[in-house]
Every structure is written in structure tokens, then in C-alpha cells.
């Protein structure tokens, strides 16, 4: 039965029209992803009306491949311009841009491409085969479990604080505080809005991100401090793009781990690529033997973030098609598209509309190959971006930022907010305060706040609810462990343990 | 010299007559250009679903295109403030108006300064009735089970809604008032997370909307206990209305179109006529049914009266409960 549907879907996608649409969607996605401020969600929403004359399955194939393409596209700007093209590429900046500075821009893009391809492919296979089983996972995540996810996510701040933990925590706290701006979800009370209704909905995360990363970079170019670095970047066109087999093999574990992280982050409603890239990056660092290399231009860091965000595409589609629960904001728009095409998203997608659904899944699968193909062509060209003079590049970045931040909500207030964040980012750069923890705090702060409040309403004020839910208890234990890992207490414990074991061995040896 | 003067006079008078002609033509032939629709929510949401449903029919009736402009933020308040305070009242800028958010925004926040007096209501199109849903594994088989449990344990049953100020939040308060029961309200960010929490057994019930939860009810994942409507819905004929068990509660979220106050009478008439043409098109109810939207057509003054009535009702409820919620 399911096998039949899989075959029907495969035959369904293999029409010239669908194949062209998948390729076109991926190319549009790559472009949209590479432009700071244009996000996948926005592009899907804008293209939606254009798909109305198309057959349902074809229209959705176009939109889904766009989503996949944008996830890789975001890394192009992150690596070349130090400006994440989409929020999901924010973690890619950490190692991608330093690689470009070392003259390895091509290699960084190649690693990103391969990792994106594998991450996307693994998630598509999961989507095709075990979606009905994994879909149930989404229902297991209520406010209590989401709170634990948020706590675990916030512990990433510690590992992102290169150099000074204090400055990292400061930056993370600013992020969480900024996430509190806006109408409280539970009480309806506007907080820190200063009576300005533009702030009622809170600070738009994309607006903040554009300002924090792009404006300081533009200012840096204007100051011409980057002259020496840029010269080496230009030479990078000659370096090889695709990683060698040896390099690839050394990253494979990280890529596969990140892929699974991406799938699960995608499945959980309310978390998407913008969260998954940090989780993927953090776990890669946790399991790495060369922790110090992360943040200095380590290819594994790029691979970890990029595999995770492409895996989110398949992951977030799992609850969408098996239950009608969107796993991310992009899939929510996609679901709106289904409705306009006369398909009610819900549990019937895999039975009543199996032909459409499985064609869509195969389109997602094929989109991975399109990403690889189109990516190789387009990336070669995009490296030439680094040849543009700084004096032209800097104002160009600022123009893109202004257009991008305006087009999110068609609101001029967001442009002012973006510039404000730009100055904050510049000040933080000058004071050597890392901006990455602020981003993590801003992404998770709101989830942290409202899920805590909701959980306590459900438990009638008892904090035990976080320990009685098995998922939440495990996640919180992992969070505690990661905090301890970064404190001296943990090292004492390990030493004490080793000493105890050693003594025990000696003691047992003595009795023999 | 004389010739030039004559020419100038001729030119001026032609201009004057021409512009007068144009002006009168403009009034009689509304609309002479495309109409902008401000949407206070993101593309792909409920507002957009209404736009996609109605606009092909409206364009056929009025002979002009509609251009959607999305200005999300502050549950629609940014778009509605722009409509009432900054848009030219010429009928070429209108907005999709969603209740109860249209009123609860300013009832609950003094910083939001527009109100429905500054609108020319054109037509309501859909009303999605409120509904109580529980998980398929819930011990509550009927609404009576649910009410009995709530009576036994006042304030203990956890009931999800789509957020403070939304229709489900106010529906819960209205039901509490009508029945004398007390629930533990749990606000979520939207209808989706609310029914998902109920379906996963995280909360005891979700006060939601029929159109949103119908696919899950049909698939048997959610059980509907009661509908907040005048009569039963043909899609779920076995689900009683709250009215049947003795509580006269009707509630839901409505979506329609409004223009700013003071648009020319011709423009208002032309717009209302277009909606009436859409309402009588036999294709229209079919398309609406395909998208699970419950039609509730009210034109012009009827729509205005409906908004007014709702404003009074929500204002009164908020007056009674606001001390629990507001700290400022």
C-alpha cells in the first residue's frame, strides 16, 4: 500500500514539467537564500499565487524545492560576506567566513554544498520511509517539552563564548532580554514597547540578524581594515571547491549527526532551521577532539551547521504530511498553499491525497540533486563577488539590508530597528563581545518564556512537571551535563572518579 | 497677441471642462484603478485564505484587480491603524477586518488608538464557529462529562486557547460566565499549537474553531464536544450546540472587508454591490465549501451593526476580567 504510493509519487514527479519546476525552484531558492533579508518563508509566500494555475503537485514541488535551495543558498552570503543569507545560516558564519579569510572561500562553499546535499538527502529518505512513525513525535512536544528544548538550546551560549565566558553570557542575556520585548503571549501585557505599536509583536528576529551581522561588516569594509584579508580572499577562486575523499571522510560523522539533529529539530513544532544550525554546530564541537579549531575556520563547523539546516526541510515536512502540523514557519506557508489548492492539510494527506503527497516527497528528494548541480554552477560564479571593490561592496550591503528589512513586513520601522541593531553589533565587535550568543538568546528567549509560563499554568504552579515528563527530564539532564562540562566542577569529578577507579584497581590488585 | 490669449483661454477652458468630466466620471465609474487590500497578517494565514477565496469573484463583479499588501504585526493593529489614520478615504484602500481582534486590540491596549467608528464596514464573508475539542483518548465523551468534571474540580481543567485577546480566549470567558464554571486557561500562540496540545493530551481541552480542527475531527484524532453556534453544522451533525444544553453562547472568528470612514457614497455602494454579486454567484458557496470556510454574509449596515454589538460584548467581558490580566 505504502510502496504503491511511493511508486505512484515517483512516476508522478518524473514528468518534464515537474522536473523543470524542481530545478527552477531550487535555483530561485539558491538566489533568495543568498540575498540577506529575503527568506525562504517569504519567497514561498510570494510565489504561492503563481502556482495556482499549475497542478497541485507541481505547484507544491516548486515551493518545496525552493525551500531546499534557500537552505543552502544562505551559506553563500554567510561565507563570502559574513552576512547570513537566511537565519538558518547564522551558525555558518562562525567558521565559514574565517575560512574565506584564509583564502579557502571555494572550499568552504564546497563543504557547505556537500553537507547540505547529504543532510537534505537523509531527511528526504526519512520523510519517504518513516514519516508516519516519526510524525507522532511532534505530538509528544507540548509546552513542558518545548521548555526543556529551550533550556538545552540556551546552554549552547556557553560553548559559543570563545575567550570570555562572562562576555558570552552577557551577550546571551542581552539576547534573551530583547526577546522579551512585545506583547506577552500569556498575559497580553505589552513589555518594553514604550507605547509603540510596532514593537507589540516583538523584535523581528530576521531584522535583528540582518543588522547584527551585515552592518558591522559594511562598516569594517569602509574602515578598510579588511584590505589585507580581502586580497587573500580574491585569490581563493583558484582553490578547489569539492572536498577530497579524506577530508570528506573526516567530516562524515559530523554530517550524519547533524542530519539527525536537523530532522528532529524540524519535526518539533516551533523550531526550524534557525535553531537546528546551532544545535548541529554545538554537538559537532562537543564531540570533536579539536574543540579549539571551531570558530577559526574549521570546515567541520561549516558542515555541521549546513547539514543540520537542510535536514530541517525533510524533518519539518514529516509532521506536516503525516498529521497536518507544520514543523516550521516555511511549512506553515506551504500548508496554506495546500488549502488554496483545495487540499485540506491533515491526516488524510497520506491516504486520500497520497498521489499529491508522494509526488511532493519525491520532489524534495530530487531537489537535493538539483541543489548539488545548480549549486556547483552558481557557486563558481558567486565567488567572483569577492572581486568587487570594498568601496562598492560596503554601500551595496547596506542597500541590501535596507531593502531586506523593509520587505519582511513592509514597515519602515523595521529598517530603523535594523540600523539600530547594526550599531549594537558594531559596538559589540569593538568591545570584543561575541554576537552569536545574542542571536541564540533572541531565537530561544520567547520560546523559553512562554513555554515556562504555559507549563506552570498546566501544572497549577508545580515545577515538578518538568521532571515527570520523561522527554523533558532527559533534555534537562543533558542541559545540566553541558553546563557542568564547562565548569571546573566537572573536571574535579572526572579526576576524582579516575582516582577512585585507580585506587579500586590497585586495591583489587593487592588482594589478588 | 489676441490669438495667443484666445488660445490660452480655449486651452484653460478645455482643461477645466476636461477635469470636471474626469472628476464626475471618477465618481460614477468607481473603481477606475486597482484596489489595494491591507492585510494585517502574514501571507498564507487565515486573512490570506479569505483574500484568495473572494478576490477572483470580486474582480469579476467590479471589473478591477485587487492588490494585497501584507503589513503583519501587533495582531493586525499596524495595518488597521494605517487604514484608519493614514489611508486616503477614496475607496481604493480597504482592509480585511478580523473579529474579535479588530476590537479587542484597542479594548485591551490603550496604545492602540483606532476604533471601529473610523471604519466603513463593507461586508462580512465568513464566520468560523467556536468549538470544544478533546483528544480521542480523553475521558470526556460528551460536553456533559466535561462540564461535570469542571464542576467537580473548579479551576483545575486545563483549557487551551489561541492567545489572550483572540476569539477562543473570549469564548472561554463567555462560557465561564454563562455556566458559572471555572477553567484553567492556557493561552498558546495561535489555533494550531492549542489543538495540537489537546491532541497530544498535554491539556484537557482546546477551545478552537471548526474550520481549523475539522480535518483532525474527521480523521478521529480529536473529538468535538460542543459547537458555539445557533444550529448544528452539517459537517459534524452529531455534535450538539451549547444552546441545546441550555447555554445561549454563539461565538467564533469572523472575517470581512472594511474601508476607512468617509469614503464617497458611490465607492461604498459599488463595493457592497460587488460583494452582493459574489454572494449570489452559484460557484461561490462551492469554492468556499472546498476550503472548509463557513459563509456568513452580512453587507454594509448589517455588518456595521454586527461589529458594534461585538464591541459592546467584548468590552464588557474585558472590563470584568481585566484586573486578572493587566498590570499596567
> Which segments of chain A are poorly predicted (pLDDT under 50) over 5 or more consecutive residues?
507-512
Shape call of chain B: globular
Cα-based radius of gyration of chain A, to the nearest Å: 23 Å
CATH architecture of the largest domain in chain B: 3-Layer(aba) Sandwich
* First-to-last CA distance of chain B: 75 Å
| Total domains of chain B | 2
Helix content of chain A: over 70%
Which key phrases capture this entry?
heterodimer, A: 512 residues, mainly alpha, two-stranded antiparallel sheet, disordered C terminus, B: 328 residues, alpha/beta, D-Maltodextrin-Binding Protein, domain 2, 2 domains, 10-stranded mixed β-sheet, 11 helices
Question: How is this structure best described in words?
Answer:
The complex is a heterodimer of chains A (512) and B (328). Chain A contains 22 helices and two strands. By secondary structure, chain A is mainly alpha-helical. Chain A has a domain of 342 residues. Chain A has a two-stranded antiparallel ribbon with strand order 1-2. Chain A is globular. Chain A starts with a helix and ends with a helix. The C terminus of chain A is likely disordered. With 328 residues, chain B is of the alpha/beta class. In chain B, helix 2 crosses helix 9 and helix 4 crosses helix 11. Helices cover 47% and strands 21% of the residues of chain B. At the A-B interface, helix 3, helix 6, helix 15 and helix 19 of A face helix 2, helix 3, strand 6, helix 7 and helix 8 of B.
Amino acid at each position: 500500500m505504502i510502496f504503491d504510493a511511493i511508486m505512484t509519487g515517483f512516476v508522478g514527479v518524473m514528468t518534464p514539467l515537474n522536473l523543470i519546476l524542481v530545478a527552477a525552484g531550487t535555483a530561485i531558492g539558491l538566489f533568495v537564500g543568498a540575498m540577506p533579508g529575503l527568506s525562504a518563508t517569504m519567497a514561498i509566500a510570494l510565489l504561492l499565487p503563481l502556482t495556482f494555475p499549475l497542478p497541485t503537485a507541481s505547484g507544491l514541488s516548486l515551493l518545496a524545492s525552493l525551500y531546499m535551495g534557500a537552505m543552502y543558498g544562505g551559506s553563500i552570503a554567510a561565507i563570502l560576506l559574513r552576512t547570513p543569507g537566511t537565519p538558518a545560516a547564522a551558525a555558518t558564519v562562525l567558521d565559514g567566513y574565517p575560512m574565506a579569510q584564509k583564502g579557502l572561500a571555494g572550499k568552504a562553499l564546497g563543504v557547505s554544498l556537500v553537507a547540505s546535499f547529504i543532510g537534505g538527502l537523509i531527511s528526504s529518505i526519512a520523510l519517504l520511509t518513516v514519516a508516519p512513525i516519526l510524525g507522532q513525535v511532534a505530538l509528544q512536544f507540548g509546552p513542558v517539552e518545548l521548555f526543556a528544548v529551550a533550556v538545552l538550546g540556551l546552554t549552547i551560549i556557553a560553548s559559543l563564548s570563545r575567550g570570555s565566558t562572562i562576555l558570552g553570557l552577557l551577550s546571551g542575556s542581552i539576547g534573551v532580554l530583547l526577546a522579551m520585548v512585545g506583547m506577552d503571549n500569556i498575559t497580553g501585557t505589552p513589555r518594553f514597547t514604550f507605547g509603540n505599536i510596532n514593537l507589540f509583536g516583538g523584535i523581528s528576529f530576521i531584522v535583528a540578524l540582518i543588522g547584527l551581522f551585515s552592518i558591522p561588516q559594511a562598516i569594517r569594509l569602509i574602515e578598510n581594515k579588511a584590505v589585507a584579508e580581502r586580497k587573500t580572499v580574491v585569490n581563493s577562486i583558484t582553490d578547489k571547491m569539492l572536498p577530497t575523499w579524506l577530508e570528506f571522510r573526516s567530516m562524515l560523522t559530523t554530517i550524519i549527526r547533524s542530519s539527525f539533529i536537523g530532522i528532529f529539530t524540524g519535526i518539533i513544532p516551533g523550531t526550524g532551521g534557525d535553531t537546528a544550525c546551532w544545535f548541529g554546530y554545538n554537538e559537532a564541537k562537543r564531540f570533536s577532539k579539536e574543540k579549539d579549531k571551531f570558530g577559526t575556520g574549521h570546515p567541520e563547523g561549516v558542515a555541521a551547521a549546513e547539514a543540520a539546516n537542510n535536514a530541517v526541510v525533510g524533518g519539518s515536512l514529516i509532521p506536516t504530511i503525516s498529521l497536518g502540523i507544520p514543523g516550521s514557519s516555511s511549512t506553515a506557508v506551504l500548508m496554506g498553499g495546500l488549502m488554496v489548492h483545495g487540499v485540506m492539510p491533515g491526516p488524510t494527506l497520506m491516504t486520500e491525497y497520497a498521489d499529491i503527497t508522494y509526488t511532493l516527497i519525491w520532489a524534495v528528494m530530487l531537489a537535493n540533486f538539483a541543489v548539488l548541480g545548480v549549486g556547483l554552477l552558481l557557486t563558481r560564479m558567486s565567488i567572483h563577488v569577492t572581486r568587487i571593490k570594498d568601496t562598492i561592496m560596503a554601500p551595496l550591503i547596506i542597500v541590501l539590508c535596507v531593502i531586506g528589512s523593509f520587505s519582511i513586513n513592509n514597515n519602515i520601522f523595521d529598517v530603523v530597528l535594523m540600523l539600530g541593531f547594526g550599531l549594537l553589533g558594531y559596538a559589540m565587535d569593538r568591545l570584543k563581545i561575541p554576537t552569536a550568543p545574542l542571536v541564540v538568546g533572541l531565537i530561544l528567549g520567547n520560546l523559553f518564556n512562554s513555554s515556562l509560563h504555559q507549563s506552570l499554568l498546566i501544572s497549577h504552579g508545580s515545577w515538578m512537571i518538568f521532571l515527570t515528563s520523561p522527554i523533558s527530564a532527559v533534555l534537562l539532564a543533558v542541559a545540566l551535563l553541558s553546563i557542568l562540562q564547562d565548569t571546573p566542577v566537572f573536571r574535579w569529578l572526572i579526576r576524582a572518579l579516575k582516582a577512585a577507579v585507580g585506587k579500586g584497581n590497585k586495591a583489587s590488585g593487592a588482594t589478588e | 497677441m489676441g490669438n495667443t490669449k484666445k488660445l490660452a483661454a480655449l486651452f484653460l477652458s478645455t482643461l477645466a471642462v476636461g477635469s470636471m468630466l474626469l472628476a464626475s466620471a471618477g465618481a460614477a465609474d468607481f473603481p477606475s484603478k486597482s484596489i489595494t487590500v491591507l492585510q494585517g497578517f502574514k501571507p498564507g494565514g487565515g486573512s490570506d485564505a479569505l483574500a484568495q477565496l473572494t478576490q477572483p469573484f470580486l474582480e469579476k463583479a467590479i471589473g478591477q484587480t485587487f492588490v494585497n499588501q501584507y503589513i503583519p504585526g501587533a495582531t493586525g493593529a499596524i495595518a488597521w491603524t494605517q487604514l484608519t489614520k493614514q489611508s486616503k478615504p477614496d475607496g481604493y484602500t480597504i482592509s480585511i477586518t478580523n473579529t474579535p481582534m479588530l476590537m479587542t486590540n484597542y479594548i485591551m491596549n490603550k496604545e492602540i488608538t483606532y476604533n471601529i467608528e473610523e471604519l466603513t464596514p463593507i461586508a462580512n464573508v465568513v464566520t468560523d464557529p467556536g468549538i470544544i475539542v478533546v483528544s480521542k483518548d480523553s475521558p470526556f465523551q460528551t460536553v456533559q462529562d466535561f462540564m461535570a468534571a469542571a464542576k467537580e474540580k473548579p479551576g483545575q481543567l486545563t483549557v487551551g486557547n489561541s492567545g489572550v485577546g483572540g476569539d477562543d480566549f473570549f469564548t472561554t470567558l463567555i462560557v465561564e460566565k454563562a455556566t458559572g464554571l471555572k477553567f484553567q486557561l492556557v493561552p498558546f500562540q495561535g489555533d494550531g499549537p492549542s489543538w495540537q496540545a489537546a491532541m497530544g493530551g498535554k491539556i484537557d481541552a482546546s477551545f478552537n474553531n471548526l474550520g481549523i480542527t475539522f480535518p483532525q475531527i474527521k480523521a478521529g484524532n480529536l473529538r468535538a464536544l460542543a459547537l458555539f453556534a445557533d444550529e448544528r453544522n452539517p459537517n459534524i451533525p452529531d455534535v450538539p450546540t451549547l444552546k441545546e444544553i441550555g447555554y445561549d453562547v454563539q461565538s467564533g472568528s469572523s472575517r470581512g472587508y472594511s474601508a476607512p470612514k468617509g469614503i464617497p457614497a458611490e465607492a461604498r455602494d459599488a463595493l457592497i454591490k460587488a460583494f452582493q454579486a459574489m454572494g449570489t454567484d452559484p460557484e461561490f458557496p462551492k469554492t468556499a465549501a472546498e476550503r472548509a470556510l463557513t459563509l456568513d454574509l452580512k453587507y454594509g449596515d448589517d455588518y456595521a451593526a454586527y461589529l458594534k454589538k461585538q464591541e459592546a460584548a467584548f468590552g464588557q467581558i474585558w472590563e470584568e476580567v481585566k484586573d486578572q490580566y493587566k498590570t499596567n
